[in-house]
Amino acid sequence: MLEFGMAYEGPLILGAPWPVPPRLVYSAAELAAALDVHLVCAYVDPSSVLTEWEPQRIRTALSLDPVVNEEALYPAKEVRSRITGLLGPDGTAWSFRELHGDVSTALARLAESTGACMVMVGNGRPGVLAKLGRSMEGAVADRLTRIQNRPVVVVREY
Q1: Which residues, including other chains, have CB under 8 Å from residue 131's CB and lie 6 or more apart?
Q2: pTM here?
Q3: Ordered alpha helix ranges (H), 12-157
Q4: Cα separation of 97 and 109, whole Å?
Q5: What local confidence, expressed as pLDDT, does residue 61 receive?
Q6: pLDDT tens digits for 73-90?
Q7: 39: which of 3, 32, 52, 112 fits an S-S bond (Cβ 3.0–4.6 Å)?
Q8: Region 8-22: what's the mean pLDDT?
Q9: How far is CA 157 from the centre of its chain?
Q10: Measured between alpha carbons, how far is 132 from 74 in angstroms, rounded to an integer?
Q11: Could you tell me the pLDDT band of residue 19, with boundaries at 50, 70 and 90?
């Protein structure tokens, strides 16, 4: 068996969007199983702002606590429910994390804190509005490759 000597041996992080594309989840589960690593499915609520964006000189110990967004509780629960429907109950093979703030930054932070071996994301929804949003905000995968040093796997969602 060929070994690549990866510097990271932690879990595979999956950035799970809402709605959840089954192809993306199955691809992540298959890759995690092949690598014999734990799969962490992470949903990032981009409508919640972290106060860590305040200048560093005025940050407090509470700066990583997200501003609570009651409306965002539904998508996170729906994402977890959908992944459970696809992969079965979470536990040893996979787990779920709800994150807040900028999607790329939150996924990179989770990868760093868990010592992840890599991050997997989808290529984004099809359609004109989705393309316009990506052109204005930038694609999550593109930004991830610029802000962290782990491999980023991009899977065609549809």
Answers
A1: none
A2: 0.77
A3: 22-35, 73-87, 103-114, 128-137, 140-147
A4: 12
A5: 47
A6: 578 899 999 999 999 998
A7: 32
A8: 90
A9: 14
A10: 25
A11: confident
